[in-house]
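Incident log, structure service

09:12 report received: a user says their structure output differs between two submissions of the same chain.
09:20 pulled the input from the user's history:
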Amino acid sequence: MTVAPLITHLYTADPSAHVFDGRIYLYPSHDRETDIPANDNGDQYDMTDYHVFSLDAIQGRVTDHGVALALEEIPWASKQLWAPDAAVKDGRYYLYFPARDHTGIFRIGVAVSPAPEGPFTPEPEPIAGSYSIDPCCFVDEDGQGYLYFGGIWGGQLQCWQSGQF
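09:34 re-ran on a clean worker, output below:
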């Protein structure tokens, strides 16, 4: 069975998918085509914003809600908005994302919105101690939320559990 791509007008990668209020939301990274040479630092991945996409059903019509968060809106970040994830709690939507800080180290940030499609407002600082990429949100049946994130080129796995940013 051949299935057509859902998103064809932008380069996207590493999506997370969630159902909020009966609608499917996709939170991918967005890679721009550049002339930056490939290297071990990943500089060729010129990811400067996030778009949020939604659809009513699998293989349904996809809505691009536009830029939900841009690099220049994040005070602590310098480049490379990689694989994000999202969660909801008490009617607020949280976008967790990795980015390089101004010293070139990957950190995990969080941005908040009243709507799943954004726009998202970033917190002014990354999550303390989050020297990593690939955040993943998990909300257990009891309502307790967890944020996991893995390492890059090192393979560490971390868990951040707190009600505070």
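09:41 both user submissions now match this output. Likely a transient worker issue. Closing.
09:42 reviewer note: The chain has a mean pLDDT of 88. The domain at 11-160 is CATH 2.115.10.20 (Tachylectin-2; Chain A).
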